[in-house]
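Give me the fold.
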Amino acid sequence: MSDRATGFQRVLAYAGLIALLAMVLVPYSYIVVTAFKTPGEIFEVTWIPEELSVDAWREVFAINEFHRYLWNSLLAGVGCAVLSLLISVPGAYVFARKNFRGREVLFYLIVGTLIFPFILLIVPITITWIQVGLYNSIVGLLIAFQIFAVPFSVWILRGYFARMPRHLEECAMVYGCTQFQAFYKVMLPLAKPVIVSVAFLSFLLGWNDFLFSNMLTTGDGPRTASVAIYVATAGGERIEWEVMMVMTLITGIPPVILYMIAQKHLSRTFST
C-alpha cells in the first residue's frame, strides 16, 4: 500500500473521530453554557453568555429542593449495585461451576427475561407493588431494579467465571480451603474487573432510571433526579430551560466520575 493511500486513510480516520467528538461534545457544551445564562438569553445562539448568572443554580437547590432527589438517586444507584452483586455473584458462580439438573434451562430462563421491554412489565409490577405494600418505598424500587440488573449481571459474570481455570480452586482446596473459602479468597479477587464493571452498570441503572421511579413512587416518596427533571419541566405554561439544564448537568456528573474510576476495569471486562 502506497504512502499516499495510507495518508488518505489517516485523514479519513481523523475526520471521522473529529465528527464523532463534535456530535458528543456540542450538546453537552450547550448544556453547560445554558446553565449559566439568564432567562432572556436562553434562545440566543451564543456560546459565551453576555452575563453569567447563577440564579438557576440557586432555584434548583433552594426552591426545587433538587438535593433531595439527588440523594434518592444515590440510594437507588448504590442500592441497586449492592443488591445485584449480592444476588448475581454467587448465582453466576453456581451456574458456572456446579452441575445440576436443569442448570442450562434455568440459566436461559433467567437471562431470557432481558428480552422483555420494561414498559410491558410496569403495569403488573405497579399493581403487585401496591398490593404487597412496596409502592412508594426505596425497598420496592430497589427490588424492581433487580428484574433487569440480576439477569444481566448473572449473564456477564457466569461467562467470566466459566473461563477461569478450575485448578485454581482445586489448589486452594488442597491447601485446606473449603469451597466457599476458595471462592471468597481466590475467585473473587481474580474476578474484580468484571465485578466492578457489573457494579458500575447496575449503579447506572438505578441512578438514571425514569420508568420505575416515575411509576412506583409519588412526590413525597423516593423519587429520583430523572423524575424530578421531568416533573419540573412538564405541565407548566413556561419551561425554565436554564433550570432544566442545571438539573441535567448535575445529574450527569456522578456517572462520568465513576466511569473515569472504573474505566480500567470496564476495558478489561469487555475486551476479553
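The chain has two domains: 3-34, 55-270.
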